[in-house]
Target: Phosphoenolpyruvate--protein phosphotransferase
Amino acid sequence: LFKERFSKAKLPAISSDDVEFKILANVSSPKEAKIAYTNGADGIGLYRTEFLYMNRETPPKEEEQYEIYKQVCENMHGLPVTIRTLDVGGDKPIPYLGIPEESNPFLGLRGIRYCLQNTEIFKTQLRALCRISADYNIRIMYPMVGMLEEVLAANTLLAEVRYELDQENIAYSKAMEIGIMVEVPSVTFILPQLAKYLDFLSIGTNDLTQYLLAMDRENTLLSKNYSALHPSVINALSKIIDGANKEGIEVSLCGELASNPGATALLSALGLRKYSMSGPVIPRIKDAIRNMDVSNNKEEFKGFAEWSTLDMVKKAIS
Ligand code: PEP
Ligand code: MG
Model:
């Protein structure tokens, strides 16, 4: 079965009623990009760049970043690569970045919040990314966005970087797409306003679940109830996917939920057509998509808004 799935991995994922899906990969290194490509990824939906900053004494310089981003793109052979800007803080401490001790790190100086207060580090990364955009099919994605102001401030810094590159006659693509992770619940209620400034959204169910349920995603005492299948999370996903589709802005999902084959049908019923997951899981999910019928799924899960417990959701998708 495994062999058979793998042999079909590079074919597109199309449901039995002819709905096409894009199955992308989550990676954190050039090596993982290679594995993703072999497993039939239609591109990279999430490249976690924070690993480049970890286990060292100083931040990676522009040139070092450029070379690694280039390798990731080379390994994807022209397929689109979505690169997430530094998502430091929370569970990912990096001592030299100087984040003070916080009593609630997951609610603290994380992701874009850190980058907007440490613009030198952020602009170095944006510069490396802009240079890559001259020759490769990349998009950039800001993590932990919770307010429109953060998108505007990040885009202003990006404009500064582009202006500086212009002054130096260094090439970049003006068409590079910009998106955000949807992982802070507040974003759900300002989607139309945000959509005006963005090209795409990618739902991070790992953090969205943590923040919606007020449950630390790493606390093992809570792991029985910490689940992206909580009815509130499912309803939030529905609202985000509908909102994105209404605004005509692309939406994908890159949290762990995308790798759960039990959830594939449910997500398709909510209107999701782009999933991003760890490379080795791709053949299995593509297979699940080929064996399902989206209109049947819509019928089967049409009562999802009434689900009240985690067990009900689990039962419905099993
Ligand atoms: C998420 O929060 O769902 C996500 C994909 O990002 P990370 O796991 O890196 O926080
Ligand atoms: Mg996250």
